[in-house]
Design a protein that fits this description.
The protein is of the alpha/beta class. It folds into two domains: 294 residues, Rossmann fold, CATH 3.40.50; 80 residues, no CATH class. It is built from eleven helices and twelve strands. Helix 9 crosses helix 11 and helix 10 runs antiparallel to helix 11. It is globular. Bound molecules: zinc ion. Zinc ion (ZN) binds next to loops. InterPro entries: NLR-like, Nucleoside_phosphorylase_d, Nucleoside_phosphorylase_sf.
Amino acid sequence: MSPDDYTVGWVCALDIELAPAQEMLDEEHEKLRRTTHDQNIYTLGRIGKHNVVIATLPSGKTGIGAAAVVTSRMRQTFRFIEFWLLVGIGGGVPSRKADIRLGDVAVSRPEGIHPGVVQWDFGKTNPNGFERTGALNNPSLILLSGLTHIRSRYDRGGSKLMEYVANFPGPKYTRPDTEDILFKSEYNHVGEIGSECTECDQQNRVNRRRRRTNEAAVHYGTIASGNEVVKSPVLRDAISASLGNVVCIEMEAAGLMNDFPCLVIRGISDYADSHKNDDWQRYAALTAAAYAKDLLTEITLPETLKPVLKSEPKPKPKPVTTASSSGFSPYSRALPVGTMDIMQMTAGTPATAAVIWVIRQGIAPVDPAIPALDVENVVIGQKRAG
Ligand SMILES: [Zn+2]
């Protein structure tokens, strides 16, 4: 296996999210040799027909910046990653619209003007209040179609999520015995931070109907991402209200989605309030990973990109007309007409990866002094600036 054989990038933020991710692999592949430009350690393997590369953030590092660093290295090593999944835990935002419980799964899906993930703490303060600036990428169309299909299968009783959860070996990730309690927003935790709610007043719990089974439900909608841990239900509810109903709050997604489209899958481990503790984290990480695996089985392999390119013999480079008139970048002089336009339009998608691959193979005439990665960076830079 070479790095070019991997088409799915799976990113975990926490140590406890790695074991469930690894356990979802149908087979594990041998590790690659480390290169000087890439300090990440990867787990490689296969889920169904997809070759998957799993990376974690360095131990103790969380947040948007750390996620961006890890994935940009990963992207340089694995040039054919077609889509990205960010899989792990997050804080649930229960509302009248979504009856979210611990161990459920939240999935980012574009809603209205939002692309599935919104960085809630990024913007500027002006006399009218806080204005959110910048827009994140939408998940790729293939992932969005995958969501439609898996939802339909779940509606027809075909979920495999709990089967994958049940297959996890050992007791560490089993469903906790501690009761799933949601307290009223105005009621704060009594006792040490992170301790169980043994001293909290049960009169202040929100009355919710009992669920018939412990099966994890899946909630689709906007996920709010920020650099700050949200432990206040007032802030949680304010973020949700300002974004028009959020299903989950987490800390890494914006770091990935700034650069390329990804789908965020979060197991709900707390309610982003002062009562939050670690009890449900492992189980929530497992339900998220199980959903990710189930989703991958809905998505077909890209047949038209790499396999076709690989089987074609390399034609000899011949002179072609160049796009000197575009004025897009100094590099565009050396590329065939339209190449840079296509790359600019499709930055971060398999089409861009395919063009870069073609250039690297010498099929397209390009100035050998310019590494293809520079071309890629220029395209991404232009895309961001635009
Ligand atoms: Zn409490």
